[in-house]
Every structure is written in structure tokens, then in C-alpha cells.
Amino acid sequence: MAFLDSADVQNALGYHxxxxxxxxxxxxxxxxxxxxxxxVSVTASHELAEMLVDPAINLCSTGPEG
Length: 66
What we know:
Layout: E1 2-4, E2 14-18, E3 24-29, H1 30-35, H2 40-53
Parallel strand pairs: 1-3
Antiparallel strand pairs: 2-3
């Protein structure tokens, strides 16, 4: 998990991706999160949970309305 200053993707507080070696990597954008009025701890825990549940970023889920 990397804590960086500003988002490198528009409107992202954080996200997880794969490294070139296929390992999961979460990015949390501290300044972007604070400027959005959110807590860095919430963004970080969200990304950690997503990375633990779907480290390869290949799972999908839909809600009751599609």
C-alpha cells in the first residue's frame, strides 16, 4: 500500500492495481482524500479490503437492480 500526495486518476481517492509482476498494489491519495472531506483511514481500509477480497482485480458483482 502506497500513500501518495495527489491522485493520478481524476476523482480517485484511492484504487488498487497490479504491478508489472502481477502483485497487488493499493494507492491512497492523502491530499486528494483530505480535500474531498474524507478520512485517509477510511480510504486506506477500503482499498485494503478490496485488495484482500480481489487481489487480481478480476471479480465482479452486481446489485439487485443490475
